[in-house]
Amino acid sequence: MKSVKQEAKHDPLKVGFILARSFTLSAFALFVDTLRLASDEADKSGRVLADWHVLGSTRHLITSSCGVQVAPTSDFIDPKEFHYIVVVGGLLNADITIDHQTSDYLRKAAAQKIPLIGVCTGTFILARLGLMKAHQTCVSWLHYQAYREQFPENPVRSDRLFNLDRSRGSCAGGSSAADMAAFLVRRHISRDAERNALEVLQIERARSGLDIQPRKPLAIECQDPRLKAVLITMESHIEDVVPTEDLAASVGLSRRQLERLFTEEMKTSPGAVYTRIRMERAKQLVLQTEAPLIEIALEVGFDSASHFARLFRRLFGQSPTELRRAHA
After folding, report:
1. CB of 106 within 8 A of CB of 141?
2. Residue 171: beta bridge partners?
3. DSSP for 152-163?
4. Which Pfam families match (predicted)?
5. Which homologous superfamily is 13-201 in?
6. Residue 175 contacts by C-beta under 8 Å, 6 or more apart in sequence?
7. Model's pTM, two decimal places?
8. Could you please report the per-residue DSSP string of 7-44?
9. 171-226: per-residue pLDDT in tens?
């Protein structure tokens, strides 16, 4: 294993962590362990090339969503001590995720131009503070609709693993936390440090911010990453249907090129796949809610309940009413 000490580009990379109540332990652990393993040779855990603190307004233990508790290691020191401040979120249904002192500290850091990174639902915390308005945000497909509903004016996407937009970063969470941390290691330390960390973590390669989230709407199998991104976009835009031209442009293709890709890999058209995704969502709403059919039709992008019902019968062999009655 090549020495990383000789290739450090700058002063040690310094990261401050803020953990929300009910934070996701895996996302925090993967992020900080990537820094730890990149910071020294082999697996000695020395803080040579990187350093970090868990910041808190008190030294009380912070409970993660799985019940494991983590203790802050520092008070709120000057944000300028850090290259980045990383906010790790967790359960969205938690009543209060951070206290007023923590909110004030994040606003102070933003005012001082310190880059802020939201990991998992940490982006929601930053958005509530008004700190993501002018920045593209990357969230998990699982949280995409909730983010759009809560922050309709904020740009957001759910097809990529992570994103760094000027002084704001965002990450879908899960294993992509290691990818984002590795990206920072490569930027501030070296490629060797990045490789050392990922090898010890048994991660085969560093995925970039352009890699697609591992999500398969309707369990549709496809190999082309552009198709995977389009499928996630379709699933994320059920009510406000995205035109095929815009779907194609989002992955750098023309409409004809996208249609050709769908035909080659899926033996059907983008429109047919999009309709199927919308109707599967409608079927779920029919079975799991008592919403009127017109509301369901509108929610999946149809203006006419009769048109919706006809298409539903053609796809599933019975009308929405019949399906709901049979499963009552």
Report:
1. no
2. 119, 162
3. TTS-EESSBSEE
4. DJ-1_PfpI, HTH_18
5. Class I glutamine amidotransferase (GATase) domain (3.40.50.880)
6. 26, 30, 203
7. 0.73
8. G--SSPEEEEEEEPTTB-HHHHHHHHHHHHHHSSSTT-
9. 999 899 999 999 999 999 999 999 989 998 999 888 888 787 876 666 677 888 89
